[in-house]
Amino acid sequence: MPPSPQQLELIRRASGLTLDAEGELLHEGEPIVHPGLHKLFQSGLDVLPSGEAIVRVGEQWAYVQTPGTPFVVQRARIAGAALELDLNTGEVVQLPLADVVLRLRGEHELLVTLPTHAARFGRRAWHALADGLELADDGVVWLQLAGERVRVTRA
Fold first, then answer.
1. Any idea where the domains of the chain sit in the sequence?
2. DSSP 8-state class, residue 46
3. What is the rounded distance in angstroms from the CA atom of residue 138 to the CA atom of residue 84?
4. What pLDDT shows up at residue 11?
5. What is the CA radius of gyration of the chain?
6. Quick check: 155 pLDDT over 80?
């Protein structure tokens, strides 16, 4: 007999999956080291309409505990007139510099608005941009990207 909707919800919540600040998936506190399973789970990250993070595998899914959005920028670089971002999901996103929208949440969490969702910068990607940050006399934070100034708003 298949599980009831209530039982299925309990099973999904008891997945033991978490996502750390750098975007790495863990199961019961341990890294998922099998390359195929790691790639499958990372590429299956998603967000429910309620805002809760999940991982999808085919038609099945389970909840993932995460500090904020499950989408993490792991590498950032300038590519011509665009900001190129490598996400923990394996996706590579290019944003024209004129379309880059950045928000600072608290003192250390930098978020970028992507076409379908927001992503937070992991430590490595954050540090790649840090030299371009400047604080104006009026308290506004700016980021210099390939000669362009992008305003960083506070979330």
1. 5-63, 72-154
2. E
3. 29
4. 95
5. 18
6. no
